[in-house]
Amino acid sequence: MAIRRIDPNLRGHDRRVALVLSRFNPEIGEGLLRGALRALAEAGVAEDHAKIVTVPGALETPLALQRLAQSGDFDALVALGAVIRGDTYHFEIVANESAAGLSSVQLEFGIPIGNGILTCDTEEQARARMETKGYEAAQAALELANLLDAIDED
Q: Which CATH number fits the domain that encloses residue 106?
């Protein structure tokens, strides 16, 4: 039996992608969005095949992702936001629950979700990572969409 390898594919032509952007920490959110949009453009995602929606914060992101997934209108989703550690336990709750919510939606609907929700100790760390993390989250979503199609074709 010959081993078949499915190579990574970042192609975005004909892909429909929705991005959910948290408005909390808006400067960082905009940097994440810039990176994600650059990745989508480089991959060939047409501007009219991308939708951006905003939510108040990271805890609201999974519900918006769920509704977008339910629509069946998208091949991949991207979550963008920043949770920055403060002096209370709230950081852990928001970071953990938003990540769990993303995973839950992804598995329930079988739709790739690029996780671009930063969890950082300081705003400086978030600023340093924002464009790269947004870019990588969009790439991850496209790569998984292409992988799922390749698996289905086998």
A: 3.40.50.960
Residues 58, 82: Cα–Cα separation, whole Å:
7
- Encoding tokens for residue 90? 């709230």
Residue in the block written with tokens 């709750």: 93
Q: pTM (2 decimals)?
A: 0.96
Domain of residue 90 covers 17-144
From 14, 90, 96, 150, active-site residue: 90
Instruction: Kindly state whether residue 78 falls inside one of the protein's structural domains.
Output: yes
- Is 152 part of any domain? no
Which 3 state secondary structure label does DSSP give 1? coil
Distance of CA 5 to the CA centre of its chain: 25
90 catalytic residue (yes or no): yes
Averages of pLDDT over runs of 10 residues in the chain (154 residues) are 92 98 97 98 98 98 98 98 91 96 98 98 97 98 98 89
